[in-house]
C-alpha cells in the first residue's frame, strides 16, 4: 500500500530475489494569491527557492524574469511571500 515501508533485508525478499527500484512521481500544485495576477509563471528553480525560503518577495528577479508584466501589478512597498506548508511528513514534502 502507499506509504508502506518494506524491509528489503527480510530473508523472504532475498530468497525470492526481489529488488527495490526506487521510483517517485508526484504532482504538486502551487497556489498563490496576488491581487490582479492570474497567470503567474514559475520556473522549477523558483518554486524550489520559494519553498526553501531563498525567494522572500514577489518582485524577486527570478520571478519577474518569467513574468515581466507583474512588476506594475505588485503592491508597493514590496509584497513578501508568505509560505504556508504542512508541518507533518508527506509525499508532497518529499517531492519538494
Walk me through the topology.
Blueprint: H1 11-15, H2 44-52, H3 61-66, H4 91-95
Describe this structure in a few short sentences.
The protein has helices at residues 11-15, 44-52, 61-66, 91-95. It has 96 residues and is mostly helical. The longest helix is centred in the middle third of the chain and has 9 residues, at 44-52.
List its salient traits.
single chain, about 100 residues, mainly alpha, 4 helices
Explain this structure to me?
It is a single chain. This protein is mainly alpha-helical and 96 residues long. The protein is 26% helix and 0% strand. It is built from four helices and no strands. It has helices spanning 11-15, 44-52, 61-66, 91-95. The longest helix is centred in the middle third of the chain and has 9 residues, at 44-52. The protein is elongated and about 65 Å long. The mean pLDDT is 80.
What is the count of β-strands?
0
Radius of gyration: 20 Å
Morphology:
elongated
Our estimate of the beta-strand percent is under 5%
Low-confidence stretches: none
Amino acid at each position: 500500500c502507499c506509504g508502506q515501508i518494506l524491509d528489503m533485508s527480510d530473508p523472504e525478499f532475498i530468497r525470492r530475489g526481489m529488488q527495490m527500484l526506487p521510483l517517485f512521481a508526484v504532482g504538486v500544485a502551487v497556489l498563490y494569491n496576488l491581487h490582479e495576477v492570474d497567470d503567474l509563471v514559475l520556473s522549477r528553480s523558483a518554486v524550489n527557492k520559494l519553498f526553501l525560503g531563498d525567494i522572500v518577495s514577489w518582485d524577486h528577479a527570478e520571478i519577474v524574469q518569467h513574468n515581466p508584466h507583474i512588476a506594475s501589478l505588485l503592491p508597493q512597498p514590496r509584497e513578501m511571500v508568505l509560505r504556508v506548508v504542512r508541518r507533518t511528513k508527506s509525499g508532497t514534502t518529499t517531492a519538494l
